[in-house]
Structure prediction request, 440 residues.
Amino acid sequence: MAKKNKVRDEKMDKLVSLCKRRGYIFPSSEIYGGINACWDYGPLGAELKRNIKDFWWREMVHKRDDIEGLDAAILMHPKVWETSGHVAEFTDPLVDCKKCKSRFRADDIEGDACPNCGGELTAPRQFNLMFKTFMGPVEDDANVVYLRPETAQGIYVNFLNVQGPSRQKVPFGIAQIGKAFRNEITPGNFIFRTREFEQMEMQFFIPPAEDDKWFEYWREQRWQWYLDLGIREDRLRWHEHGPNDLAHYAKKAYDIEYEFSFGWKELEGIHNRTDFDLSRHMEATGKDLRYWNEETKEKFIPYIIETSAGCDRTMLMCLLDAYDEEEVKGEQRVILRLHPRIAPFKAAVLPLVKKDGMPELAQRLYDDLRRKFKVFYDAGGAVGRRYRRMDEIGTPYCFTIDGQTSEDDTVTLRDRDSMEQTRHKIAEIPDLLESKTNGC
Ligand code: ATP
Prediction:
């Protein structure tokens, strides 16, 4: 909750500053003074985000025979959001302070006074989180459309459109990555809660009788995904939704939470949504969305197990988890210990000095590597400083070309985390990098 006297989150302050300085993330429209809680991803941020999404897509779609991808439109028929319950119920209780005019989510506040100034608060009123806009030139109620607040509905309404052509049989899933928009009352904590964000969602359609089995299966899979991202397991935990926070449509729900510098917070929800979504869309449209089981000659409405993760939140977790500082020979070293799989640059190629044929050899290695990997070439300044720069942006390996290279065709491999240096044949570097970055 936003309390004025809250302790400064020093780690977050340092990360925000590093992200700005090194081109990971900066405020949107900054030269106009920025816009609240909107962020732009710079060259490194765009790479990191893409690597996270690619890893999710590879694990959830490419490596599996039973999940298909989808890329549905952000704007959908407005009735979709009536049917899903978002028009009536996608609300947060909002209160205003009568004295300092601050605005809060009522469920974030303990007691009945303003956390900022102790002033009197208004009675809570429900505030719908969906962004509205108009389709076509006439701005009236008949032309209202919504920016989707979740990507899931695009999957439900396309259930049979995907199932038919892909010839999938239940159980199978549909996965989608895309932007979602929520007019949050209290966005904040950098990119943790924003009004425009990306979701990575997968809806798995199953026979109703198998729901417990698949629910447990997806809990395990999704937990493992975070470990494979390089996240420390002791910073992850489960939160089971109890009677107070279980959504009306869910039979069971768990969140995976991460211990952010500002507390334990949700990363991803895994929900047993039963047949709620398909039933509602069937009722609203009169279209038969039941699945025909050839073998048993039965028609049924599948249950859905949903895994719904936030891409930006995952990115913030990766950055915070990776951020580290240490003292080396009296100097501070800042390191982003990002897993090589998601690091923006997999390696840097550095000629020790700009003479004696070193730049030419380095350029050749760089050209060779970049056919397959995102690598960085840096020839300027003291090599120690160049290493530090790579540490700070999370580049896991540096290859340094020195005087010995022209004599025996070897280069130095310098490891970001241990700072250890080892020598390797230049011809073996592409394979070595391949094995160290796990094929990414
Ligand atoms: P919260 O309780 O944090 O508001 P939620 O339970 O409303 O989240 P879901 O509707 O389950 O979230 O959305 C699935 C995922 O989408 C969340 O786990 C989160 O990672 C991401 N997400 C949701 N809202 C936001 C937001 N405003 N900014 C960034 N990511 C978000």
Remarks:
- The chain has three domains: 10-87+129-319, 91-127, 345-436.
